[in-house]
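User: Reviewer 2 asked us to show a designed sequence for the structure in our supplementary figure. I'm pasting the C-alpha cells here. Could you produce the per-position amino acids so we can include them in the response letter?
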C-alpha cells in the first residue's frame, strides 16, 4: 500500500477516533461559558483542550482565574512579592461564590492552589480553576503546580505543599499551537494527538512511564517547526526515531522564563524509567515498520491500535469483506480538522 493511502487512513482514524466528539465539545463549551459568566469574564482556558491537542475522552478542563485588580495592582507596584502571596482567603471566597452559583449536584472543592468543580464523581468531567495574576507582556504569575496535569496536581495536593509562584505564558503556547497547525495544514495537531494517545497507552500498561503530555506535544511542535510539510505518518516516525536523543538532557526552554526548561524533569529520571522509554520506543518503531509493510486497511488499523495500546478495538470492526467499518461519526474541531 502506498504512503499516501497509509496517511489517509491514519488521519481519518485520528479525526474520527482520537479527537473530542461534538457532544464533548458542546458540553465543555456550555460549562465553560457558564463558569465564565459566574466569574465575570475573568477567565481563560489553559491546557491541551485550549490548544486543540487533547484526545477523547476529555476528563477535565484547565481554567485560569485572573485574580482581583487589587491583588494585581499590589504586585505591579511591588508592594506584594508573588512568592509571598497568600491565596487561601481568595480561593475560599471563590469556592463559596461558586457553591452559591452552581446547583447542589455540582461539588465545589477548595484545594491548596485551585478550586475544583466536579460535575459527577471524581472520575467524571471536572474543571480546575487556577488563580493567576497578570505579570505584563501577556504573561501570568501562576502556582507552580499549574504546570502539572490536573490529575497530578490534585494528587500533589494530598501532601499540601507550600505554594511557589512562577511565570507562565498560556496564551503564547495556544498561539504557537495554532500557528504551527496552520503552517502544517492541520498535521501538527493530528500528530500530537497520536503521540499523546500513545503516551496514555504506555501509562495504562506501566504506571511508572514518566513522559509528560505537554513535553511530548512540544517535541511534536519542534518537528513541524523544522519541516512543516511533513505528512502525519512521517512526523510520527520522526518522533520515535529521535526520542532517545530528546531524552538525553533538557532542551525546551519555557516561553515565560528562559532560565527554566519545560522538560527539566528529564534530569531526575531513573535508569529504570529511561530503559522503559527506550523499550517502548523500540516497540513503537517496530509497529510502524509493520504498518508501512501492510497491504490492507485492516492491517494498518491493527498496527495503529497496537501502537496506541488499544488491545481490543472499540472504535472499528472488520466486515466479512475485510473492510474496516468505523463506528465513530462525529468530526473533531471543524476549524482545524
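Assistant: Here is a per-position design you can include in the supplement:
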Amino acid at each position: 500500500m502506498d504512503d499516501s493511502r497509509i496517511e489517509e487512513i491514519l488521519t481519518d482514524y485520528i479525526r474520527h477516533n482520537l479527537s473530542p466528539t461534538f457532544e464533548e465539545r458542546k458540553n465543555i463549551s456550555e460549562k465553560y461559558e457558564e463558569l465564565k459568566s459566574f466569574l465575570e469574564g475573568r477567565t481563560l482556558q489553559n491546557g491541551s483542550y485550549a490548544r486543540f491537542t487533547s484526545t477523547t475522552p476529555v476528563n477535565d478542563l484547565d481554567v485560569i482565574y485572573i485574580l482581583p485588580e487589587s491583588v494585581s495592582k499590589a504586585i505591579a507596584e511591588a508592594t506584594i512579592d508573588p512568592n509571598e502571596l497568600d491565596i487561601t482567603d481568595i480561593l475560599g471566597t471563590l469556592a463559596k461564590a461558586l457553591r452559591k452559583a452552581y446547583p447542589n449536584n455540582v461539588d465545589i472543592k477548595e484545594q491548596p492552589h485551585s478550586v475544583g468543580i466536579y460535575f459527577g464523581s471524581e472520575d467524571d468531567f471536572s474543571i480546575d480553576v487556577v488563580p493567576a495574576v497578570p505579570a505584563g507582556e501577556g504573561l501570568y504569575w501562576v502556582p507552580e503546580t499549574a504546570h502539572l496535569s490536573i490529575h497530578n496536581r490534585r494528587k500533589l495536593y494530598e501532601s499540601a505543599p507550600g505554594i511557589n509562584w512562577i511565570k507562565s505564558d498560556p496564551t503564547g503556547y495556544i498561539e504557537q499551537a495554532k500557528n504551527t497547525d496552520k503552517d502544517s495544514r492541520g498535521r501538527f495537531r493530528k500528530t500530537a494527538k497520536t503521540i499523546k494517545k500513545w503516551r496514555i497507552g504506555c501509562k495504562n500498561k506501566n504506571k511508572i512511564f514518566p513522559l509528560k503530555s505537554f513535553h511530548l506535544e512540544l517535541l511534536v511542535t519542534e518537528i513541524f517547526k523544522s519541516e512543516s510539510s511533513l505528512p502525519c505518518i512521517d512526523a510520527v516516525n520522526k518522533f520515535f526515531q529521535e526520542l532517545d536523543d530528546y531524552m538525553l538532557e533538557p532542551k525546551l526552554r519555557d516561553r515565560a522564563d528562559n532560565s527554566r526548561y519545560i522538560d527539566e524533569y528529564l534530569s531526575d529520571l531513573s535508569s529504570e524509567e529511561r530503559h522503559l522509554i527506550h523499550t517502548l520506543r523500540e516497540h513503537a518503531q517496530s509497529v510502524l515498520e509493520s504498518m508501512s509493510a501492510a497491504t490492507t486497511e485492516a492491517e494498518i488499523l491493527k498496527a495503529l491500535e497496537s501502537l496506541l495500546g488499544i488491545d481490543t478495538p472499540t472504535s472499528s470492526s472488520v466486515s466479512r469483506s475485510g473492510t474496516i467499518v468505523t463506528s465513530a461519526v462525529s468530526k473533531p474541531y471543524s476549524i482545524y480538522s
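For the response letter, you might also mention the following. Residues 39-168 form a domain with the Beta Polymerase; domain 2 fold (CATH 3.30.460). The CA atoms of residues 253 and 259 lie 7 Å apart.
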